[in-house]
Amino acid sequence: MHLAVLNSNRMKTSSPVTESIKSCSEYAIRLKSFWSYAFAIFGIDMCKRGQESRKKRIVFIALAITQLFIFFHYISCLIYNFALESTVSGLSFYTGMLACICLSIFNLWTMNRRKVAMTKLLDESIFFLSGHPECTKCLWRYSLIPSIGLFAMTIAEASFSSVEVFTRDNAGIRNLTAMHLFKINFAIEYLYIARILISVEFIVSVLICMGFVNISVWFFNHMCHLVFYRFKHLNMKLEELLRSGKQLSSFDLAEYRAQHQLACQVTEELSCLWSPLIVVWMFGFILGLCFNMKALQVEFRALFLIAYLTDISRQLWLIVGLFKAASLVNVEAHKLAVKLVTFPISQLAFTDADKMEYYFNYLLLSERLVNTRIGINASGLFLLNASSFLSMAGTVLTYVIVLYQSH
After folding, report:
1. Would you say residue 183 lies in a domain?
2. How many whole angstroms separate alpha carbon 214 and alpha carbon 146?
3. Is 19 within the bounds of a domain?
4. Residue 377 pairs with which residues in a beta bridge?
5. Is the pTM above the cut of 0.90?
6. Residue at 249 is within a domain
7. Containing domain of residue 240, as a range?
8. What is residue 5's predicted lDDT score, i.e. its pLDDT?
């Protein structure tokens, strides 16, 4: 009877723990499945097996060929229209689209080459947070909700543009045909063919190119948040010791420094895997924003104007999200530097050897937190933090003003 009561109590006390582990495992599985399915749409198999399904390989090749076809078509249109019209405003549409397509092609190639290493880093980072179900739940929401929002903006841009093309009069369609189809002269009864060709190409380019860039940038933001939570829990553990009033032991300092070093190695690995992409993303977004804003000088109809504003909002969202996620890592990695450096060290009854070990670990940890630049870097050029974001924003604003003054 007594054993039965004990077993019953044990089951009651262990049920919350079991539910917590189950909840954590559920959201961890959801996270992995979400990114696996998201990239599978574009033919990229996010797995560590080193084997790739034939179906996904066919999808990847088809999308790569489609993007290359769109790229060569738009660059041909740019050259053709440049020979007829040399104004910046008239060519802003093709320049902005070319920037997006080039960005997507390089993105697709790089992600496909590094998919195994990226997936391994994703699995290891999620496994590290396996004991914190509240974090995996927050990360699941952070991955799902913005991805749906970005996808909705992409769908809206494609829809507004296609509706604009189909509702144009014959004179407007002939103007678009002159720009997109090298002045092919369609008879009035066949202008619907031009409408279909122009709309389909634009919808495909938006959904494939912009859609893949959206999901890739947000995947990087998700990885930054995984690293951020790693630093955050490490800092929370040290803060609890500091608030308790206990003297940090040499073992505490050595353990914190070792765990901090592991988190820094993960941050460095994240930077190395995404460094070329980060630079290309920055350049592509800045170029696209500049020429999209320049294109607003042209008198567009309402639906085209909404499509342009949607695209500008989408790119601004991606840039701000990218810098914000990387900045969180940078801030959290240095958060306890001042507290640790100013923490009073009491004179304990240490032996000389123990004191030497204690001060050695303390100095090494303080040096790491104060004098080491920890964060996501763009190919070693600069750290992604608040100051670099303000510098980039100033540069974009300067070039937008220059483009608006040009003709």
Report:
1. yes
2. 10
3. no
4. 383
5. no
6. yes
7. 38-406
8. 39
